[in-house]
Amino acid sequence: MATGMPERRGRGTREQAVYAPADATIAAFVNELLYARGRSPRTCEAYARDLEFLAKFIGRDVATAQRAEIKAFVLDLAGKRRYQPAAIRRKLVALRRFFRYLIVEGRREDDPMVGIDAPKLPKRLPVVLKEDDVAKLLRTAAPAGRTEFQRLRDRAILETLYASGVRRAEIAALNLHDVDLERRIMRVTGKGNKQRTVLINESAADAMRTYLAHRPRSADDAFFVGRRGTRLGVRAIWSIVKTVEKLSGLSLHATPHVMRHSFATHLLENGADIMTIKELLGHESLATTQIYTNVSVEHMRKTYDAAHPRDKRDDR
Whole-angstrom Cα distance, residue 220 to residue 13? Predict the structure, then answer.
């Protein structure tokens, strides 16, 4: 049972299946990302599929793509295919890294990405659930047909997402030895294969203990497993959250990332400092975390009311 955190095992304890591109150049690039750069298998697959998408668009080896063709590809994504700016920007990141890799390896002299501008992102604040809405979500009964094990697992996943603010990929990669329920801490591996320690509350710890008492015997070290005793993937975790959301009747969409946004905003509104929230979320830049100060109107109101002298005067 997960009550301690022994020394980390080898990479193989949490390694996922790695996508193997048919194109040898893309495959070599994926290996560079995975083993030299420490990128996750999920990120490597996304980059590989983006490159395969471009290769299909131009009708030949992606390594030979020219600037005009890439520009036409971007215009096709934004126009005919109606991709959102964020999705296009992510694909451009993959292309830039690929062509820089080719230059470093001496496989290409020019960079066709020069002059390719990424579409601007609209300035949107993250979606955040109210505290009462989160409570309603966590109280929602499991759908019909769920076994006791699945019901307890799904509840533990929801509680853990809200208690810790972890990403769905981080909770999917969580292993038994990463969790210390006595101290209420978890060790997670985030973007760039960087590890950090996060906290959980008593509600999450209780839900996780109850789940572990019903977790099927398995040779898999994964904390959260499916009916066959194998690690739950990110899609399964997404599906669990969306299923409960539909049953809850919430007006706002709940996703694992919305739970992360809600976690950060609610901590801020209840007095946590921005630097603590930054560390818990695993942000490299404080600027990334500060978006929650824009979301949290209630936090601004409390600060304003505490600081402005007018309403404190007896002679107003």
Answer: 8
Please calculate the CA angle 105-110-114 and round it to the nearest 5 degrees: 115
Q: What is the CATH number of the domain that holds 215?
A: 1.10.443.10
pLDDT tens digits along 145-191: 899 999 999 999 999 999 999 999 999 999 999 999 999 999 999 88
Instruction: Quote the tokens at residue 80.
Output: 């005919």
Read off the tokens for 234: 């990110």
Task: State the pTM of this model.
Answer: 0.66
Work out how many domains the chain is built from and give that number. Answer: 2
Task: Tell me the two tokens of residue 296.
Answer: 């949290």
Please say whether the beta carbons of 175 and 222 come within 8 A: yes
H or E stretch at 135: helix 131-139
Which residues carry out catalysis? Answer: 167, 191, 257, 260, 283, 292
Residues linked to residue 225 through DSSP beta bridges, in sequence order:
231
Which residues are bridge partners to 261 per DSSP? Answer: none
Range of the domain at 22: 16-104
Cβ atoms of 250 and 137 closer than 8 Å: yes
| Structural domain contains residue 109 | no
Q: Which run of H or E residues covers position 208? A: helix 202-214
What are the b/e assignments for 168-184, b being 16+ CB within 10 Å?
Answer: bbbbbbbbbbbbbbeeb
Tokens of residue 64, six digits? 């030979």
- Residues 111/103, Cβ–Cβ less than 8 Å: yes
Q: What is the pLDDT of residues 195-248, one digit of tens each?
A: 999 999 999 999 999 999 999 999 999 999 998 899 999 999 999 999 999 999
